[in-house]
Amino acid sequence: MHNFTITELIDGLKNRVFSSTEITQHFLSRIKTLDPAFNSVITLTEDQAIEAARLADQQLAKGDSAPLCGIPVLHKDIFCTNGVRTSCGSKMLDNFVPPYDATVVENFKNNGAIMLGKTNMDEFAMGSSNETSFYGPVKNPWATNSVPGGSSGGSAAAIAARLAPGATATDTGGSIRQPAALCGITGLKPTYGRVSRWGMIAFASSLDQGGPMARTAEDCALLLNCMASYDHKDSTCVDRPVPNYSANLGDSVKGLRIGIPKEYFSEGLNAGTEKAVRESLAEYEKMGAELVEISLPNTGLSVPAYYVIAPAEASANLSRFDGVKYGHRCENPKDLEDLYRRTRAEGFGDEVQRRILIGTYCLSAGYYDAYYGKAQQVRELIRQDFTQAFEKVDLIMGPTCPSPAFEFGSKGNDPVAMYLEDIYTISTNLAGLPGMSLPCGMVDNKPVGLQIIGNYFDEARMLNAAHQFQQVTDWHTQAPEGIES
Amino acid sequence: MNWETVIGLEVHVQLATKTKIFSAASTAFGAEPNTQACAIDLAMPGTLPVVNQQAIDYAVMFGLAIDAEIGKTSVFERKNYFYPDLPKGYQTTQLEQPVVGPGTVDIQLDNGETKSVRIHHAHLEEDAGKSLHEGDFRSGVSGIDLNRAGTPLIEIVSEPDMSNAQEAVAFAKKLHSIVTSLGICDGEMSQGSMRFDVNISVRPQGDEKLGTRTETKNLNSFKFMEDAIHLEVERQIDVLEDGGEIKQETRLYNGETKVARSMRSKEEANDYRYFPCPDLLPVVISDEHVEQLRSKLPELPDAKQQRFIDQYDLSEYDAGVLSTDATVANYFEQAASQSKNAKLTANWVSGELSARLNAENLSIYQSPVSAEQLAGLIVRIADNSISSKMAKQVFDGIWNDEGDADQIIEKRGLKQVSDSGALESMVDEVLASNQAMVDDYINTDPDKRKKKLGGFMGQIMKASKGQANPQQVSQILAKKLAERL
Questions:
Q1: Is 0.95 surpassed by the pTM of this model?
Q2: Under an 8 Å CB criterion, which residues of A touch B?
Q3: Residue A450 and residue A472: Cα distance in Å, rounded?
Q4: To the nearest 10°, the Cα dihedral for A471, A427, A389, A249?
Q5: What is the ipTM of this complex?
Q6: CATH fold of A1-485, please?
Q7: What's the structural domain count of chain B?
């Protein structure tokens, strides 16, 4: 049952092959049995899920159910869930229970989906390996000595291990696509402003974007159909109709112009990864698409620009965690300064503190122009790179990340090496463009991700291209050893 | 040495919107602590601001009223600092691109001249909450009340164009008059609706270069501001005359103890690390919208004063007093239109009514005497039904809720006697029973007889219990005495 895609589960529910209660209980029991080995789920909402499944079965019996009625999903623990602890992977929020749902969570509820629980993540979404979580690292189901990627490593690993058919995730610099690649699943970061950020705990507000993770592009389309909405509670949300992302999945990719940025195939790219990506591009050629070499000349500046802008925004976004109103508070503060100092020193992990310090420094008097101001200029250049590229091509493709899943601790002491993990994904966040990753090969029995970058609000075309690829390949159906049971 | 004072003001004006600048919580004053603070005001994780259009419109209206340039695109920025009553750890405000650009405010000086004070800019921002320290709260701990957090403010920044406390107060009062006339602020100083920061420096008379300035913060009454300026100017002159130097610093003035102290020096000043708020898009104001607001702009104090002179034939002084506060002006106009006697109404509004309101510390909208009731009283004064002396008693009666003028006159029997027959016999009686006074009058030198009339008047008025029409009595008295010569 856990090998069914969401599309297949919906069919099964409609045709009474099984009930929502049955599949919900099945996934809950898989999480309880298998997840201790992966640590991908940090809060299980079992009673709520069973009750919701019972109600979903009633709806299904009536025959007028919502699109995702009865489908179990996991939410990344960055999305606020009314009455359910939302920790953001941090000690700071270990005791935080929001009195409201994120718009994304509400959208899933309204579409009939059932929340199984909350997934592990890098603390405040800061990390590419899931090693910074207060709840311990998530292990990659393909190789438990290796990272699942981050920050949405919990969601990606859970899907890879068939603990849920779909999950929510967020992407600030690659946090959906990189773990999707490393865990061999499909994940989509929509255009900035497509999915509401209300109730999604902010890391870097101008870059953060929620998106779906599932095994197939077809399932991602179903999830995005309900996830995307205009939300007046988020001023950066774009008021634009949500298309039916499932409608054109079957379209041919014949004549599709695919841009191949030469900067994405330069030094630092693992040879096996490159081979897998090139073979995938050849598949597209076989399907009638046209490959066009392009240049995104400012790609090399994306990581440094990102590591000024994201920490700068984060330094302000995380100021609210001061021990005054909610979350962690140090014991017996002797005065206000002591309260702030110890609460934040105890509540935040090393990587979060590092980024707060970087951001604070970049915004300081005398440094602002050289760092934050310059980074904003670079951001504009990167945006222009893409604008020019999309005059010539319909989609851009390349590797999602430089190499397959690395082993725990291998980059832990070298933050810059870790930051370079996102070299191919960060540019799209800076430009606000949509990007996705889908499985396209294996290196040493670890998955490789193909990245697809689209023009603004062109998610439907990306999903169509990904779906067509998944019609002629079977990388997305492969499962880690021992998971099938 | 002669010293010259240079003063600039920063004025915080709370806007009279029903809800906060970035949330839907109420801005009403005086509620139980933290009952008007929603998840956004509390800076709960995942919450986002949405700007209140009414606050923007009010700021634009102020800009139009002072003939300022309106910022077609204004940008909210984050001003970062830690304080318990600042829930997000930053204040959302404007810096580089404020909503209101340079403008001017004209003030009347005591010598009758008009002076233009230049406005540097005015920007929108959110108010902070309040910290309740020991004494206000429980001992040993401080409390935080976030009801005020997020109340919209405009901060109006003047150029250093004022040269003494009187000018500063005139400027502050003029701003008060403008914002209350516009209806964008309730003007309640005691509730903190307007607060002043005063920048003061002194320099030797004739010097070009400005002296080092200090800023005295958070003065919430005209009187406190005036006192604080006098105190600070004296202090600076004393320091300089003793050969000392003025330190650039922020000072606090206590209006109750009349003592000021240094709060922090320039060296201790925060680095606020301003940067554009990524949660809010730039505010774009179209020309059409500006024109729409301009067309709905209410009459401003200067125009109103001129109209009162023209329409009601008031003196410039009376017109000024009555047009300064829009609520007073409305009260006056309502009463005048019903009494059909503008001059007398003006005298009563600016005289007896104002004095009584001041004495009892009430605002005009709290007046126990309505405009209609005052008009009723004035009608009776004008038609000679009651004397002005009686009118004060009737006014007291209305104030104490004993009814309308006519009811009180009737109930207390205060109606003025104007029946000439009755008055003649009253005069006859008094003259008959005071033969000695009459003889004295006859024997007095004709040039000095006028002085003796007062004695007769007193007797007659006493006999009539004050109800005799004094003008008629004096005519009859003159006639009767002449007959006895």
A1: no
A2: 79-80, 86, 88, 93, 96, 98-100, 102, 197-202, 204-206, 232-236, 312-313, 315-316, 318-322, 324-326, 336, 340, 360, 363-365, 368, 372
A3: 15
A4: 20
A5: 0.96
A6: Amidase signature (AS) enzymes (3.90.1300)
A7: 3
